[in-house]
Amino acid sequence: MLVPPPSPELTEGRQGHYAGVASRLVAFAIDIGAVWLLYTLGAAAVSLASQLIVGHPLTLGHHQAVAAIVLVGWGFVYFSYQWALSGKTIGMALFGLQVVRADGQPASPRQAVLRTVLLPFSFVLGGIGVVMVLVQRQRRALHDLAAGTAVVYAWDARAARLRWLARKEPATPPQ
Amino acid sequence: MPNPLTDGVERLAQAVAERVVNLVVEAIDINAVVSRVDVDALIDRVDVEKIVERVDVDAIVARVDVEKIVERIDVNALVARVDIDRIIGQLDIDALVEQTELGAIIAKSTTGVLTEALDLLRSQGVGLDDFFARWTNRILRRDPSTLPPGPPLLVGTDGSPAAPA
């Protein structure tokens, strides 16, 4: 199925512009899903290994406090490591988003860690920190302002539009 | 046979004449003289066509060492002065891709379904972002053109892309 190409206003020249709330929230939801999925797979692998080595499975579900600590720790590693490495998590890479410094340079590892620690605070008090993406002039959430970061579109939208146009049947070539 | 009297007088006369000429030349304000010359009238009187007809252009061109001239041109400086972005900006890239074989080459060079899905996902995301931003700006009575498009190092002051993120 060939969908119509996105309008130039939607795509062209967006590289490096501040990303909006919808892309960011959906990317974040994908990341939460990825954190949960990888945690579940990891827990299953640990349980299986425990079964093979000591003869009985180690089920984290029976130790909820430990499970919660492991999950939070894993989430911290997931976000901070990826932001420090490339400025992109899996969800952000899917949506072509990138965390950068407020001036546009790559985010530092320190900023990545700080951003990860402060991320939960954007969701408390009715998500006021996230609403800031809508009202703040630079579309920066609470954790962005505190960590000195911003989120931008990092995908080559112009190339995407050209790919779309290229998939259409070419007209009769000029003689 | 040399006459010492007349020769001496001649030398004196010659020296006096040279001195007078030098004094006159020094006294003449060349600029004032030139300013009084009606150059236009002078040019009008010159038959340029006739002069050009007498010039053997082929012979002049044959004597020009083009290779040497080209060697003296600083091509890098020349290219640096060309605004390629402006030239590319004048191209109708959409029409170029749609109407030429270039489109087929691009289509072949990109992996189909996954790229298409990603492009779709991202452009839908941008569309939704714009929708929310538009309504927020209306509610806050904010002029979108006054908002910074992106970080200063990634977009120019006019909003034009500066470098890939």
Provide keyphrases for this structure.
heterodimer; A: 175 residues; mainly alpha; 2 strands; 6% strand; B: mainly alpha; 11 helices; elongated
**N-to-C SSE string of chain B, H for helix and E for strand:** HHHHHHHHHHH
- The averaged pLDDT of chain B comes out at 79
Structural class category of chain A: mainly alpha
The largest β sheet of chain A comes out as: 2 strands, antiparallel
Explain what this protein looks like in three dimensions:
Chain A has eight helices and two strands. Chain A has helices at about 10, 20-55, 65-85, 90-95, 110-120, 125-135, 140-145, 155-165, and strands at about 95-100, 150-155. Chain A has a two-stranded antiparallel sheet. Chain B has about 160 residues and is mostly helical. Chain B has helices at about 5-25, 30-35, 40-45, 50-55, 55-65, 65-70, 75-80, 85-90, 95-100, 100-110, 110-140. In chain B, helix 9 (about 95-100) packs across helix 10 (about 100-110). The termini of chain B are far apart. The chains are: A mainly alpha (about 180), B mainly alpha (about 160). At the A-B interface, helix 1, helix 2, strand 1, strand 2 and helix 8 of A face helix 9, helix 10 and helix 11 of B.
SSE diagram, text form:
The complex is a heterodimer of chains A (175) and B (165).
Chain A: H1 8-11, H2 21-54, H3 64-85, H4 90-94, E1 97-101, H5 109-118, H6 124-135, H7 142-147, E2 149-153, H8 157-167
Antiparallel strand pairs in A: 1-2
Helix pairs in contact in A: 2-3, 3-5
Chain B: H1 4-27, H2 30-36, H3 39-45, H4 48-54, H5 57-63, H6 66-72, H7 75-80, H8 84-90, H9 93-99, H10 101-109, H11 112-139
Helix pairs in contact in B: 9-10
